[in-house]
Structures are given as C-alpha cells and as structure tokens.
Amino acid sequence: MADLEERVQRLEAIEGIRRLKIRYAQLCDANYDPPGLTALFTEDAVWDGGDLGRYEGHDQIRGFWEGASKAFTFALHYMIGHTIDVDPPFTSGTGHWYIWEPATVNGRAVFLGATYDDVYQKVGDNWRFKQVNANLHFFTPYEDGWVKTPMMPMD
Amino acid sequence: MSIEDRIRTLEEIEAVRRVLAAVGATCDAPYDGAAFAGHFSEDGVMDLMEMGVYTGRAAIQEFIDGMRARVPFTMHYWDGYAIDIDGDEATATWYGFETPNLNGTAHIGGLTHDATLKKIDGCWMVTRLGQELHFMTPYDKGWVRQRVADQTA
Amino acid sequence: MPSERTVEQRLQRLEDIAAVRQLKHTYAKLMDAGLCHENAAWPDDRFLALFADDAIWESNVHGRHEGREALRALFAGWAARLTFAKHHTIAPSIDIAPSGVEATGHWYTWETITADGRPIWLAATYDDDFVKRDGRWLIKHVRSHIQFRSPYHQGWAAEAPLPQMGE
After folding, report:
1. How confident is the model at residue A1 (pLDDT cuts 50, 70, 90)?
2. ipTM here
C-alpha cells in the first residue's frame, strides 16, 4: 500500500502544481492582484523575467506586480502546453510551461509569447512558487508581429 | 480520504476535463448544435451574457446551429482548466481563444468560461455554462481599436 | 468503467494519461528548441527517441513519412526553412486502450512561426497514436490536420479551412 500511496501522491502533486499555475494566471488577469499573487510565492522566492527584471523576496515581487498592474491594463494568460516533474517526498517540483498572452500595455495591443521554467515548493498543504523564470520569445505590438518587432520597449 | 477516494477525485478531474474539451470541439469548423447540446442536462443553461441566456437542450441547440449559419469557420482553443470535484458535482473555469471567420473577415476572440456539471447516470453533464467575452475583434483591428465586433451581422 | 477496475489499474491509467500528456508536450518543447536553432543538433537522437522506430508522421500538407530516418529528414527540412516556432499545444484528450500499451490523443496547436523570414500563424489539430514499449510511452503515429497557415499581416479568412497548399 505504501507504493500505491506514493503513486497517488505523485499525481496529486502534479495536479496541485497545475492548479497553482492556473491561479497565478487568473490573478494576473485580475489586474495583477499584488497581494494575491505575492502570496503564491515562498518568502525567499525569485521571479526572473530577463528584460522584465529580477525580483527576490515578497517585497520586491509585490512591487513588480504593482508596476505590472499599471502598465498591463488588460491581459489573458493562456497557460498551456506544460510538463511537470516531481519526485518523492513530493515537497518540491519543477515545471515548464508555454504561455500565449494577448495584452494591452501602455495603451497598445500586444502579443506576448513566452515559456516558463518554474521551481515549486510545498509549504504545509499548499504548493508555492520558489522560482519563476520567464523566457520571453516575443513581446510585439499587434500591428507589427514578432519578425518586425520581436521585443517592444516597455517604456 | 481513502486511496480509492483520492484516485476517484483524480479520475473525475480528468473526466470533466475530457467532457469540456469535447464540448469545445463541437463548436469547431464550425458548430454542431445537437452534439453541443447533448452535453447539457435537460434543464441546462447556457449564459452568454449580452448574447443571451438559453435554457434547455432545444434552445441551446437552436442557438448553436444558428452560429453555424453565420460562422463558416472557427476553432476553439480551450485550456487552462481549474476543476473542483464535490461528489457528483463539479465546477470548472477555463480560458478560450477563438479564430472565427465572420462576414468574410478573420476575427480573434479572447474569453474565459465557467461551468457547473453534474454526474447523471455515470456521465458528466453540463448544468450551466457561462462566458466572459474579453474581446472578439476583426483581425485588422485588434482589441484596443475595436474590442468587440458586431457578431450578429 | 472505473468500478470494474482494481485500484491499481485505475491508478495505472491515470499515470499513463499523465505520461502521454508529458510526452506530447516534450515533443513540442524539443521541436521548438530545434526550430528556434537553440539546439544545433536537432533533429537529434534525443528527439527521435520520443518516437517508436516504426513511427509515422503525416499531415494534409506534408504527406506521410515513416521510420525515424524519414522523420529526421522531414524535420531537418523544417529546420532549414524556419528560424522560429512555438507550438502551443492545447486541450489534450487522451484515451488509454484496455491493453494498457496503446493510447490515442487528440490536441490542438496554435503556432507562431517564422518561415523564410516572415511571421506565420498555423492552426492544426492532431490525432496521435502512442505505444508503450518496455514501460515507456512512445509516439507511434502523428496525424496533423493543418486548418490554416496564414501570413501574420493577412489573417486566415481567405485560407481557412486550408485548401490544397504547396510548400
């Protein structure tokens, strides 16, 4: 029965991590709810988005979401193709996700395409982000596309 | 919860995900009203907000078949599911991206959806399907220039 | 129906669904790394090892290709033409056969591609077969139906559903 327990825990961990990522998406799309999003991260977490900046710990991460909520007045975070890996004792895991994101940034319609490489940690009964690495592939004005303007300047 | 209960929960999450994927697929390339409505309970409700509320399979089927007449091509990309199981009932939210041809013009649509389901005679049936339309814009415009196109033309 | 299966069988089915889902998403991730030229060796043995050695890849546009070396040639051709690709794999519906060693999967992809220096949208649906050999799931048969393949600045109204299209 111990073997069955471990196998069920693994599937539950995968589903729990999946739900964490979807919750992240939903809060981002609710105008980047800063306290709600920050609570999804461990105290010592890092959010690293390359050109979007690197933020460590709750204070910096909350500040990032506060800024995002001003610049991104609309977004839909489609979190789609993903792989999730977990091992016993299922208190940590990693994941790779594709995101497709139509958004309005500083008044302009943009398409954002990226992948995430995440590290997850279980805190009590809840999965949390320990590390989020966002790899931007394009951040392009709607009229331009990713060949003409792969990365739109933020300001 | 026993191991069996925990496995059942995981199975039901997967089953609901499958049913909703099947519902979305009935709307592709393009709409099949009977197949779509067949996933609803007898008194199921489809709430499309400004596009109307439809109660019962017949009304739902009629609306969906009406879409087929106006939309010669579309694809529905439904994913990003969050599904909760409570015995023989379930709730779900998800994201939808659509690429319809309306009035000879490509459009793109961004939506979020929600549903309640009930397991009836061993099958998950939709008791309520809702949506929030964030944009449905002609391709040459984008959602800032024109957030919602006139879909009844 | 679940009540006719043992707990172990039910668990195995869920694990197999998770494994097939993981396999398809790994296919997309490795393919995109290759088509974006992040992996100069692609299509490499690591990628082709995702496929059964008698695997088939076919689409309404690319025709039918059988066996790992034919697949290697097909994918190498794509890498020669494309400089960027992201396969957004969406809405998996996976069925595990009663045998437990065969499976089918239906998916959508929404793709952003750069071909010959131009941005392209590509929309496809997939109906794939998978096999489990020596405890490992492999891709056995990819059936891609490309719904449209359209220039970014044009949209897909003229092309969808896809008529006959040459490469």
Report:
1. very low
2. 0.93
* C14, C88, C160 member nearest B101 (Cβ): C160
Which residues in chain B have Cβ-Cβ distances shorter than 8 Å to C88? 77
pTM (2 d.p.)? 0.94
Interface touch B134/A76, C-beta < 8 Å:
yes
Quick one: closest CA in B to C1, which residue?
Answer: B122
Could you tell me which of B27, B75, B96 has the C-alpha nearest to residue C147? B75
For residues B106 and B141, the answer to whether their CB atoms sit within 8 Å is no
Nearest CA in chain A to B80: A79
Give the Cα separation of B135 and B130 in Å (integer). 15
Report the amino acid identity of residue C30: L
Chain C residues with beta carbon closer than 8 angstroms to that of A8: 11
The amino acid occupying position C31 is M
User: Which secondary-structure segment (H or E) carries A69?
Assistant: helix A57-71
Residues of C in contact with B99 (CB under 8 A): 123, 148, 156, 160
Q: What DSSP assignment string belongs to A125-152?
A: TEEEEEEEEEEEEEEEETTTHHHH-SB-
State whether residue C147 sits within 8 Å of chain B by CB. Answer: yes
In the numeric block, which tokens belong to residue B81?
């599911």
pLDDT at residue number B152: 54
Tell me the pLDDT tens digit for each residue of C15-72. Answer: 999 999 999 999 999 999 999 999 999 999 999 999 999 999 999 999 999 999 999 9
**Secondary structure of residue B69 in the 3-state scheme:** helix
Chain B positions in Cβ-Cβ contact with residue C155 (cut-off 8 Å): 105-106, 139-140
- The alpha-carbon gap from A134 to the nearest alpha carbon of chain C, in Å, equals 15
| DSSP characters over chain C | -GGGS-HHHHHHHHHHHHHHHHHHHHHHHHHHHHHTTSSTT-S-HHHHTTEEEEEEEEETTTEEEESHHHHHHHHHHHHHHEEEEEEEEEEEEEEE-TTSSEEEEEEEEEEEEEETTEEEEEEEEEEEEEEEETTEEEEEEEEEEEEEEEETTT-STTTSSP-----
> 3-state DSSP call for residue B141?
coil
- C114 and A147: CB-CB below 8 Å? yes
